[in-house]
C-alpha cells in the first residue's frame, strides 16, 4: 500500500481549503456574498467593480475544488478496511466526494459566465447568472450529506478491538450533516438567516465544512500512520491478532 500517495491525498484537503479561501475572500471578494436582495443594477455594479478579481479568483477556485476528489479517495481507502471487499458505503462516500467537487466547479463557471461578457450583458442577465451561481454553490448540499453520513455509519459499525477510526469521528460526521442541512433551504428565501448569505445557510455550514476538512485531515494522517505500522508488523504478529 502506497502510504506516501495516501498522505499526499490527505493534504489535498487543507490545500483545497487554503486555496479556496484565498481565492474567494481576497481575490474575488465573494465573501461576504452579494445579498440576494440586491437589485440588478447593484449586482452588475459589483461585478464591474471587481471584474479582474472575480475572473482570477474563480480560476483559482476551480483548481481548488478539484482537490476534493483525492481527499475523498483516501477516506474511501481507509473506510474499505472496515467494510471489506464489498464496500458499499465506501463507494457512496467516494462518489459523493467526486460529485461535491463537481458541484463546486459548476457554480464557479456560472460566475465566470456572468463576468465573461460584462461589457455587453444587461444588468438583469448578470443578476440571473449571479442568482444561479449562488443557489448552486450554497444550496446543493445533498451529496455532501450523503458523504458525511456514509463516513459516520461506517465508523460506527467498526466493532474490532482497535477501530480504524475513533468512534467520535462517526458522531462528528453525523453532526456535520445537521450543521450543513440548512444550506439546502436557500431557494425558499431572499433574506434572513436562511438566505444564501445568512448565518444558518451560509456561515454556519461554511464553518462546519472547514472544520470537517481540518478534523478529517488530522484523523486521516493518524489513520494512515497506524495503517503503515500495521503493515510493517511481523506477519506472525498480525496473524495472532
Concise structural overview:
The chain has 241 residues and is mainly alpha-helical. The chain has ten helices and no strands. It has one domain.
Q: Could you report the average pLDDT, rounded to the nearest whole number?
A: 92
- Strand % is under 5%
Distance between the termini: 20 Å
Q: From the alpha-carbon coordinates, what is the Rg to the nearest angstrom?
A: 20 Å
How many strands appear in the DSSP assignment?
0
Helicity, in percent? over 70%
Bulk shape = elongated
For this structure, the quaternary state is single chain
Number of individual domains: 1
Structural class: mainly alpha
Low-confidence stretches: 235-241
The number of helical runs is: 10
Largest sheet: none
Topology pattern, helix = H, strand = E: HHHHHHHHHH
Word description of this protein:
With 241 residues, the protein is mainly alpha-helical. It has one domain (3-220). Helices cover 76% and strands 0% of the residues. It has 10 helices and no strands. The protein is elongated, with a radius of gyration of 20 Å. 38% of the residues are buried. Residues 235-241 have low confidence and may be disordered.
Write the layout of secondary structure elements.
Blueprint: H1 3-27, H2 40-49, H3 51-66, H4 68-83, H5 88-116, H6 123-139, H7 142-157, H8 167-180, H9 199-232, H10 235-240
Supply database-style keywords.
241 residues; mainly alpha; 10 helices; 76% helix; elongated
